[in-house]
Amino acid sequence: MVSDNFPRQVEEAAAFLRQELAQEPAIGIILGTGAGGLGADLKRSKSIPYEAIPHFPRSSAPSHAGKLICGVLEGKTVLMFQGRFHAYEGYTLRQVSFPVRVLAALKASHLILTNAAGGLNPLFQAGDLMLIRDHINLLGNNPLTGENVDEWGPRFPDMSQVYDPQLGELAEQTALELGIRLRQGVYVAVKGPSLETPAETRFLRFIGADAVGMSTVAEAITAAHAGLRLLGVSVISNVNRPDAMAVIAIEEVINMVQRAEPRLSALLKGIVAKLPD
């Protein structure tokens, strides 16, 4: 028996959404910085602001709308989170991954995570899409810290295949059909909000990362614990070259992601269309 209120809060949020939604979603999509436009493609959609959902955190990051949209995308019932939460906003990693817990409580089977990331691989270009094949957790904590809820998942979940290989192959196939260049690589999460120094950039590349950001990994760990099939896609907003670091502002990141968004949306819609009902 757990000693805090977190499981109760998850169930109360899920119960609220069961009453609000026409049917429980099969697929969850969490959209990252600058990538909220896909919500316009949902049919028969209903929008719920985060502040209306019991115990939901508030999103304060730029370009994160802070609303939940339920609707039909390519014939599938989808729950789309326009805006996520980050450790640098002061949230614990449990709070950061709260939407994933709620999604699992609603019996969803698939989760798609997107983010904006700085490229570390020198072969990447700004605007590229990267399929996340693996990740490195440098957030300084883990969303599973604390007493385990056995009904949610095992105390020591296996992490050998956090990102579903079959979904990765489906993404590759879909990108090929659409003529979209889809890179592949390892995503590393740091806490932020300061961006990386040249020395940190060199270190992150040395340990095997291809892209760096401040999100996604806590949600991915939680999804693995909950048994969700997971796909992750990064939009490379810029490429960090430690010997010639360029100054970058968040406005430039958002602008680049918005320019790449039509390709990201096409890819995600193509993937969703091929997922089982």
Automatic annotation (TrEMBL):
Family named by the database record: Belongs to the PNP/MTAP phosphorylase family.
Task of the protein: The purine nucleoside phosphorylases catalyze the phosphorolytic breakdown of the N-glycosidic bond in the beta-(deoxy)ribonucleoside molecules, with the formation of the corresponding free purine bases and pentose-1-phosphate.
Record keyword Transferase present: yes
Name of the protein this chain belongs to: Purine nucleoside phosphorylase
Functional pathway: Purine metabolism; purine nucleoside salvage
Single GO cellular component term: cytoplasm
Entry GO MF terms: purine-nucleoside phosphorylase activity
Keywords of this entry: Glycosyltransferase, Transferase
